[in-house]
Specification:
heterodimer, A: 6 helices, B: 176 residues, five-stranded antiparallel sheet, 50% helix
């Protein structure tokens, strides 16, 4: 038996459609604004991931997987860490033998030492935001995928038990297959 | 078996007492004058002519000898804290690149006939010098990303490791 299509809720879908761009914009604002006010990479990353979670709850998992595929997710989750460590490496290179790891002042973004430190902090916050966003989204997608697989198995089991054959044998086969997979 | 339980109970009670003591002893949050935030006390010494020398902004030989004997960096000069009688700052030379100015390091104050010498906590520099050293307004951000950059790198690594572990445990397809 084919899986029953989930009925659509117009209110939730419309609200999500309107909300998601604003949630993402707010997340970018929180990440970028971390140097001047309340905010930062951790908070902004989690807010950005919550936009994906809202999409999944309002629509479905396949749609969000199309827009934000697994490969991109994995790349992003390590990209942020690479940005952070790379900024530190740049500081080593530009400090010319003094080996000042993560001392952003030596990276020549501008001519002022203090401004360089502020800009280096901004780049580091962006890196933190990317990693946190990708990791939170990845954990949520994995859990949702697992839950959906389990539900599908249960439904399959129910349909098989209703379709005439004896209940006991079908149960034993499904449990056997699920434990082996 | 029974004795093990008694020992465990005693240890737990000790931990409870310790936590109650900590809860009593912890300074009021956000109080910049609280002892653990402002300074760490090093030692006390007798006041003879040291105080009058300090008042004339002269570094007493006895004080720097005492500090070096205890393994602390020797101060380079002394200055009076303006507006307060009997309190002085001692400064040391900084070895960091790019910041050539002296750093406020020791806090000396007179209490009766004793001279109490403390070392300023790192947070004092963080609060007072953060804006001019990093050109960032947000104290939390420059603490998190600049002064404590290594810690934050470690935190991001922890989050990354957690995510990879969830992928490996739940996806079960032997690929990332």
């Amino acid at each position: 038996m084919k899986k029953k299509e989930r009925e659509k809720d117009v209110i939730i879908e419309t609200v999500a459609r309107v909300m998601i761009p604003f949630v993402q914009l707010f997340a970018l604002y929180v990440i970028i604004h971390g140097a001047g006010g309340p905010g930062g990479g951790f908070q902004g990353g989690v807010v950005f991931a919550s936009a994906f979670i809202l999409y999944t709850m309002a629509f479905n998992l396949a749609g969000v997987r199309e827009r934000f595929p697994e490969s991109a997710n994995t790349i992003f989750s390590s990209l942020g860490l690479y940005i952070y460590a790379g900024i530190g490496l740049l500081a080593i290179i530009f400090s010319l033998g003094m080996a000042q790891y993560l001392n952003y002042g030596f990276i020549p973004f501008t001519s002022h030492f203090e401004e360089n430190r502020a800009l280096g902090m901004d780049f580091v916050e962006i890196g933190i935001g990317i990693t946190v966003m990708a990791i939170i989204a990845s954990i949520f997608f994995d859990l949702a995928q697992k839950e959906r697989n389990r539900k599908e198995e249960e439904e399959e089991e129910e349909s098989r038990s209703w379709s005439g054959s004896s209940q006991k044998s079908s149960q034993s086969t499904t449990t056997g297959s699920s434990s082996s997979s | 078996m029974n004795r093990l339980r008694v020992i465990a109970l005693i240890l737990i009670l000790l931990l409870c007492v310790l936590f109650i003591y900590i809860a009593e002893d912890i300074p009021v949050f956000g109080d910049p004058g609280a002892p653990p935030i402002k300074c760490v006390e090093l030692f006390t010494m007798e006041v003879d002519q040291v105080a009058s020398l300090l008042d004339q902004h002269i570094l007493p030989e006895k004080l720097s000898r005492e500090l070096v004997k205890r393994g602390f960096p020797p101060p380079s000069r002394v200055e009076k804290i303006p507006g307060i009688e009997g309190e002085w700052n001692a400064l040391i030379k900084k070895e960091e690149p790019h910041y050539a100015k002296d750093e406020k390091y020791y806090w000396i104050r007179k209490e009766g006939d004793k001279l109490r010498i403390s070392r300023y906590a790192f947070v004092v520099r963080w609060i007072e010098k953060g804006l001019e050293e990093t050109a960032v307004l947000n104290m939390v951000t420059y603490g998190l990303a600049d002064y404590r950059g290594y810690d934050t790198l470690g935190e991001v690594t922890v989050i990354f490791t957690a995510g990879i572990s969830v992928i490996l445990l739940l996806r079960r397809r032997s690929r990332l």
